[in-house]
Structures are given as structure tokens and as C-alpha cells.
Design a protein that fits this description.
Shape: elongated
CATH architecture of the largest domain: 3-Layer(aba) Sandwich
Radius of gyration: 24 Å
Largest sheet: 9 strands, mixed
Structural class: alpha/beta
CATH superfamily of the largest domain: Zn peptidases
Distance between the termini: 43 Å
Number of strands: 20
CATH class of the largest domain: Alpha Beta
Number of helices: 15
CATH topology of the largest domain: Aminopeptidase
Number of domains: 2
Length: 512
Amino acid sequence: MKEIIDVGLKTRKVGPDIAGPKTDMLVVGRFSDGKGLNKLEKELNSRLDGAIDRLIKLSDFKAKEGTSAVVYGSDRTGAKRILLVGLGEKKKATLDTVRKAAAIAAKRGVELKAKTVSLALHNVFGGRFDAAAMGRAMGEGAYFGSYRYDEFVTESENGRLDRLKVEVIDSDSAKIRKLTKGLSCGTAIGRSQSYARTLANRPANVINPPALAAEARKLARGLKNVSCTIFDEKQLKAKGMGGVLAVGAGSKSEPRFIALKYSPAGKAVGKPTVALVGKAITFDSGGISIKPAPNMDQMKLDKSGGIAVLGTIKAIAELGLPLNVYGIVPSAENMPGGSSYRPGDIITTYSGKTVEVLNTDAEGRMILCDGLAYAVKQKCDVIIDIATLTGACMVALGKYMAGLMGNDDKLIKQLQKAAEDSGEKVWPMPSGDEYAKEMKSKIADLKNTGSKWGGACTAAAFLGQFVGDTVWAHLDIAGMDIFTKATEYTAEGSTGFGVRLLTTYLMNLLEK
């Protein structure tokens, strides 16, 4: 398997002539409602004999968000290409506008086989945003846009470069220092999201539960202050983790329970211990309640929640955040077979609660309930679970944002703020007692499906039965896990959704 594109990020102080540095591609942002050319555009336009002015007057580039245009350099510019990136209306611009613009630039850089991409995007925003925040956004965007999953492609007519160098340029030393600080943070988060995308994209014949556990061990070995505990099938039976065991019973690949612990010695005293619990079904056929054949290949991405947890642990360890964080990833492969769990079975879970199985394709909650109970047993102060849990959430919200449910208004608001900061959108949904009543069984404590209505809410209410009084939130990321085709910002495949969101939430905790 070949490596994904190696992205190198740095800042570079240039002279007062910001239009002059040598580069394969200089990236400049433009607002759709901008009046005339800004200072940098005027200088570039002068050196290009009016090329930018002509492009705009012809309306070939209207600077709408998500658009871009290439103008080729001349002997009077240090850049071989100038990429104009549309930022949309100035009044609507956010840090996510910066992030997306950097993603477009990196994506175009890869497509054009540019070795060096120089970002001057922040220039047009003036003092609207903190320079460090813009540096972070550009770092995250550069990784997101440059990402390609092609490790199994052995032949390519055009090929691609193995490395992309992205630099953020400015002539102000004080601003460079702030940009550098932010870019360093964005690099850690962006690199971790790319790591998560690669793991999620790998097919089920490459990543099964034992292979995922081995990857978690490898990750922990490469990080400071991270330990890794794995429970195999024998240990799962000894501990009574019946939910994970039931779902994995039909597969030749045995289930695993992964527990990562990030514990920076002495630095997290007095701060809350947070558990991140992620669903990792390495392939979901639906089991005996088998899914339809169309698009079943996408079910390799049913491990996306668990992978997001691994990526978040990687990011916070590289950032050295002074928090105690558990990364709990129950993992199984849901397959039909002679030993599969069946509709009608009653499963005793790790918490001691019993669950009547009505549908083997409602398997995510069966493994998550063991993960949540384990987090409670570790005496975590806050628990957040993340899962591609229900098609019902995608029916409700489409592919635009994740569902957010929980038992604590403060935590819900904190995650909404993290979503706003990270650009990974969420929308609050209910999961109260009326939904929990639907999940009561007549022959067990609970059943694993409710009625046909409000499926995302009843699923969350089911999970809520396993956290007791612990502060808890649930992220249903169904629909957010995949780009079925390439966008203007990035390639098709796994999105790595959740890494930026969860890392930002943890960083925001420290700011308070």
C-alpha cells in the first residue's frame, strides 16, 4: 500500500512585496461583494497586465463561496499561478470560510501538481479574525483539501506528487508569530483527521476488529501519555460484555473492545475526565436482518464513530492538552451466520440490563451500551458517544449536520459552540422520557428498536439508559461519514467527521 499525500505546513515571512515570492501557486481570497480590487489584487493585476481585472469584468469569476479561478503568472510575478478563491459575501464570512478556502487551494494544488502552495488568504480579512485562529483554520483546511485515498491504486495515467508543501505567507513578523501558533494547532488536528479518513476508508478485508485493535495499539505506542487496553473475546465473556459479543457472534473475525487512556501526568488535576465512546462496526451487513444490496459497500464506514475517537486521541496527545480523556471503542463485524444473534434473542449487557433484540441491524446501540457502561464504571465526569447510528437521523437532517442529543443542556451548548468553531455542524434533537418509554420491552428491560417514527430519538433514548446520572451527549453522524462524490473542497470517501468537533470541544473546555 502506498502512503497518502504527505502534507508539510509552515509559515514564511516575506518582504514587503507579498506579491513577489517564488511559488508554484499563490492563493488570494476575494469577496463576492468586494468593491474593486484590494491592495494585493491591484499589485498582482498590474504585474499581469490587467488579467485579474479582465477576468472579473467578464464575470468568469464572481467570487461565490466554493469557486476558484487560475490566472497564470508572468515574468513579473514570483508565482507560476495565482489562484483566486471565492469567499462569498463579506458579512457572512466565518472562520469556516477561511478553512474551506484553504481546502479549495490545497485540492487545486494537488490537481495541478503544484509542489508549493502559498496562502495569502488571511490578508483580505484584515483584523476581523484573530491571526492564530485563521492559521489554525488554514492548517485544517489544507489537510482536508489535499487528502486523497488511493493507497490501493497501483496504476495511474497522471500520477500525483507524493508531497505537498503549504505555506502561509505574510510580511508582518508579529502576525507571523500568531499564524505559526495557530498553524501548529491546525496541523495536529488536520493530520489527525486525515489519519481517521484513511482508517475509515480501508475496506473490511483490511480492517476487521482485531486489525483495528492492533492499529489502536500502534497509535498508542507512537503517542506520549497514551495507554491502550484491548479486551479479546475471552475477556469480553469474562467481563459480561454481552452487547459486543452478540453483534460479533456471526463473524469469523472476533470482536474487540478498545480502551485508550490519555493521561498527561500531573497536568489535568482538577479538570474533568471525559470519555469519548465511538461505534466501530468494521462492516455492517445488517446480520440476519440483512440490508439491501445497493450501497452495502459503504457499510465499511460504519466504524466511523470509533475511528473519530482514535483520531481525536491522536490530536489531543499531539497538542498536549492537560485533560484526562478515555477513548472507548467497542468493535465488531455484524454478519449473518450460523452463530449470529437473532431477532427474539435476549442479551445481558455489561451494565446488567437485558435487551430484547427485534432487529439485528440495530447493532450499533448494542455495542455502544457496553462502551457507555464501561465509561460510567471508570467514573468519567462527561461521556460523549459518536456513531453512524440511524438512517432516521439522515432522514431528519440530510447530509448537512449531525444529530445532537443528551441529558445536559450545558454540554449540548458546549458541543454546539464546538461545532460552530470547527465547521462540523450539529443540530439538537430530543431524546426524553417519551422516547425512552418506546424502548421498554415486555420480556426484558429494553428492546433494541422502537416504532417506525423518531428513530434517531428513540435510539438516543435507549443509549441514555446506560449512563445513569453522568453528564452525557450523543452524536448521530449518519450521513456525515461519507462524500459519495468529490466536492469542491475535498475528495470522495470518508469525511473524518468528528475529529475537529471533539478536539475543539476539549480545547474549549480548557479555555473556560
